[in-house]
């Protein structure tokens, strides 16, 4: 079925189960509300797409936020001009961001290494700056692109479906509203499809060619592969994933702002991917979830909550503990994030997935020597 | 012509800051082989050395003088800066000149920070991939900026120019033009000269000392220098410290031009990476040249005449130039083959 | 003149190469017969590697042209030259160190079957049974089947060289270029490699070998060309070359062993 290997099928099944049961297992972590779970799904799609480029080919793009932004803008324009249905919106977002990626990729891929990174960064920063200035008619500048009651929505008008009486129109899927849990399950299903696609790419000869480019481009050329179109295809696919993620951001919250194109957003997706594990299937997803979790949960904690939490301590100690901890939460959650990166890179190079693998290997080894004597093995 | 000169000058001081940051970034990359995303944070820390120094020097005693009453009847608070108590008028001068004087604090402080960073963290990453170096230094940069934010808050902290140095120099007169045709703020002129002196100093240090010779040799061919049995480790530490000091003093002197805030480092980091890459990874003259070039181009692009001709050009000029240069010259202006290309 | 006669598969006609003022190759006229193993020998710095690089299109000749089966190779990209049916073994092995040994051998087979660029997500690597079988057979031949799951980067230097050879062989090239295929190998490994090359000799593949080791050259070559100071000073059957006084002169007056 699906022509996946048995191992991949199992992984897909586990993944689908984990994603769909999020509302259950996230509840103890205080993260089981649709708004946050949507973000988990959306940024996981973004990271999965980024990983197809960075993980397989080793080309580090620092400008992927541009595609996220383009996807968002396209979606809102589709809502405004065509229809409140999310089908055409997503379709156009993927196409437009793909074309955009084709343009940027065509030029950026003429260079390798850090030169490629800086080219992608430069293109993305230009898009960001222009979205704020010259392109205001398209992007609505600093305010961001918003829906309005009197948008034309030609397709909707054609079919006679008009906005309901009060308030702004809401995005729909075949007339069904996509707010709350519906919105989450929509994103969840798309995430599972995205994961499946990335599995297909990883397992295909195309994916092998991309890995070959990462491993030894000279050999690829002398083996008869034309590496340029392979790279470009990977770049465009990964840009389309980003565009899709951008579309979902605007579907769940119908507005689009230029800040989505800023380099910090590009940096975020790099961090998510590296944190979870570059070039692995699950890594980017885990990285995206962790970062979004910390961003939302840690930034929401305030001093009062800490005081409540540590009220069992003696007064002086409590004040001290709360003062110290308050630096790491709320406004200061970035500090936690920064520390987390430093610690993970220092102690877990290769990201969480590789760390997990190493832990498993160690556990197996300990099982193999039941008397507790750890065998000394030379490092490879 | 005068407009042209004025814009050229305006671009030079910004270019000076870019060049100073890019210089340290290149030095660290060239010798240690580390892509340091925390370098912008070092510039920011330099800025806050000036802020700290001014804070310390303006600590004051507050006494209530019961004899005097303010117009609304409450006793007057008499605030006297401590330095004024101790040194009299000289203290007042100290307060006025806090920015340039804080260089004296910044040099040892940045040296210590730099050495601590290198010994504590960076040195474990010499053999790791560039991606990991980027991630760990990026994390470090976040940590540093958040620490600064928790001490100094999120708002910019403006620093005054010493009162004698306010106003503008009528430099047109120096070149035989009529008065007031070409003026340039004193402090910008000082920053330009200052950056020229620091850049000259670094180059002289690398050119004329044995230490500098080894560093340059290391930049050209790291492995060979390692094989020669030279104690690379200690030199790496010093180079990193030097780069930190250069970034730091560049920050100190820049504070009157741009009120520092905690995320200033990140803003400058992106730009200075573009500068370094445009100059060519690993090339010191390239970094300096690209710094000034981009500073000047940015200044020209923000002229109203240019903006009306090409709308939005001031926003994108640096990136546009970076794209064009990288597409025309694969390794930047003065880069060498094979560096950071895989 | 630049026209391939029926049984000449590769013809380097009147090739000159200058590096700045330095003449690396002059007046090269080299014809490789189809199905034969042609060795190019010569002292260090004679221009052997330059000649190979000119043939493969890595370095453009200053003048002259290289024609492969009626197609001018000059100015073609490496992948285009490979797609014409020319594979190359490098002096330092160029493999995919981060990929499993098996995939190292499978990738070139895909390039042979699917051409220079193809995106097909419907089939997975594992479902390509035929190519997989072919790769496993070749790995069996070179004795690396037991390590097919290991990363190629973990192989010994000798194994890497044999792996690279296998990567070229699976493409069933019409012309195989080997740049010192046994350099740095132990006597034992050298002999296994010679055996392997002998075995494929019967398959009718044309081979050009650059080699220092005279033992290898005389066990494999059908024809030998001797390069000295950028010129071909002798070309002929192994026996003729052995007895040629100019060749002995070129090797510093010593006799060819």
TrEMBL record, chain A:
Main location: membrane
A single GO cellular-component term on record: plasma membrane
Entry membrane topology: Multi-pass membrane protein
Cell compartments where the protein resides: Cell membrane
Keywords of this entry: Cell membrane, Membrane, Transmembrane, Transmembrane helix
Superkingdom: Bacteria
Spans through the membrane: 12-33, 40-66, 86-107, 114-135, 178-198, 229-249, 269-294, 306-329, 335-356
Gene Ontology molecular-function annotations: branched-chain amino acid transmembrane transporter activity
PANTHER family found in the cross-reference section: ABC TRANSPORTER ATP-BINDING PROTEIN (PTHR30482:SF17), HIGH-AFFINITY BRANCHED-CHAIN AMINO ACID TRANSPORT SYSTEM PERMEASE (PTHR30482)
The protein's name in its UniProt record: Amino acid/amide ABC transporter membrane protein 2 (HAAT family)
UniProtKB/TrEMBL annotation, chain B:
Compartments it resides in: Cell membrane
Alphabetized InterPro entries for the sequence: ABC_transp_permease, BCAA_transport_permease
Biological source species: Mycoplana dimorpha
GO biological process, one term: amino acid transport
Major localisation: membrane
Keyword Electron transport part of the UniProt annotation: no
Membrane topology: Multi-pass membrane protein
Protein name from the UniProt record: Amino acid/amide ABC transporter membrane protein 1 (HAAT family)
Keyword vocabulary terms for this entry: Amino-acid transport, Cell membrane, Membrane, Transmembrane, Transmembrane helix, Transport
Signal peptide residue numbers: none
TM region positions: 15-35, 42-64, 97-122, 134-152, 189-215, 236-257, 269-297, 309-328
GO molecular function annotations of the record: transmembrane transporter activity
Family listed: Belongs to the binding-protein-dependent transport system permease family. LivHM subfamily.
UniProtKB/TrEMBL annotation, chain C:
Protein name: Amino acid/amide ABC transporter ATP-binding protein 1 (HAAT family)
One GO cellular component term noted in the UniProt record for this chain: plasma membrane
Keywords: ATP-binding, Nucleotide-binding, Transport
Organism of provenance: Mycoplana dimorpha
Pfam families: ABC_tran, BCA_ABC_TP_C
Gene3D superfamilies in the cross-refs: P-loop containing nucleotide triphosphate hydrolases
Keyword 4Fe-4S: no
Domain ABC transporter: 10-254
Cited InterPro entries: AAA+_ATPase, ABC_AA/LPS_Transport, ABC_transporter-like_ATP-bd, BCA_ABC_TP_C, P-loop_NTPase
One GO MF term attached to the UniProt entry: ATP binding
